[in-house]
Amino acid sequence: xxxxxxxxxxxxxxxxxxxxxxxxxxxxxxxxxxxxxxxxxxxxxxxxxxxxxxxxxxxxxxxxxxxxxxxxxxxxxxxxxxxxxxxxxxxxxxxxxxxxxxxxxxxxxxxxxxxxxxxxxxxxxxxxxxxxxxxxxxxxxxxxxxxxxxxxxxxxxxxxxxxxxxxxxxxxxxxxxxxxxxxxxxxxxxxxxxxxxxxxxxxxxxxxxxxxxxxxxxxxxxxxxxxxxxxxxxxxxxxxxxxxxxxxxxxxxxxxxxxxxxxxxxxxxxxxxxxxxxxxxxxxxxxxxxxxxxxxxxxxxxxxxxxxxxxxxxxxxx
Length: 318
Ligand SMILES: Nc1ncnc2c1ncn2[C@@H]1O[C@H](COP(=O)(O)OP(=O)(O)OP(=O)(O)O)[C@@H](O)[C@H]1O
Ligand SMILES: [Mg+2]
Description:
By secondary structure, the chain is of the alpha/beta class. 33% of the residues lie in helices and 30% in strands. The chain has helices spanning 52-59, 84-89, 107-112, 126-139, 155-168, 185-200, 212-217, 236-242, 258-261, 283-293, 306-317; strands at 12-23, 26-37, 41-45, 69-74, 77-78, 92-95, 118-119, 123-124, 173-177, 204-209, 221-226, 229-235, 247-253, 265-271, 274-279, 295-301.
């Protein structure tokens, strides 16, 4: 796993260092460090109330500088955002868990509200605005009349309009807080495809979610957060490799003596040509030994799911 802890590592587009944020009676973020490289898809994963939305709101200036302690370094510069406009002007765009569309405005007005296209520098260029709105709706594959009001639309469609709106900004870092909520499986898949495309085009993406199975499918970097603290971080594959359980299964041809197996394994199960158990020290010494006695046909070390890793880590951190 690559060391990512250097504050001024040139590959990092974003570093959040020692971020602490309290609400009355709640320490929502407790000295949180986050490192994100350019073009990376980074998941902030944790249970309800872990602090994910609070962290995203600190990053996007919704909780302004002074409301938290710690530092935000974006593109090698310390940033003090006093509101969401400051982060947007740097290319950081957030789609909040609580969607922020105007129900009484049309689809295209929602996409460009606040940054409408001007012609000759001062007059609103409505034709251009509508054309671009259609282009961004096409990217999220939403076939909808741009004049429709947003209010009566379902959550899934509103979510896609939010994504189209985010893409309409000159975005460098896109933050999606719980984006899968409200999307059906087809749109979840579409969102993943859009995100992968954007990452390949050099955009950086931060997702926050408590749906760990979504993370498993989009291989990426993760920060696991629990009760306001980061408890594990790194590349998903490396994290999983480092957390390989000691549970092993061996299929073989021949006969083994269970008592001898118990020198190496606990919770041993021996069947005719199969042995499983938990290794006492390391699996290599067991494999060396059993290889001399029988013909080993297959050998498996079980890789845990992210959810299992999370549960173990939370238990250990108590
Ligand atoms: N505006 C607020 N006022 C008071 N407490 C808050 C506020 N916002 C969040 N909290 C508290 O801070 C903690 C972290 O909340 P946060 O919303 O960041 O969690 P989350 O990881 O986004 O959870 P979820 O998965 O439910 O969205 C929780 O204990 C929550 O109750
Ligand atoms: Mg949240």
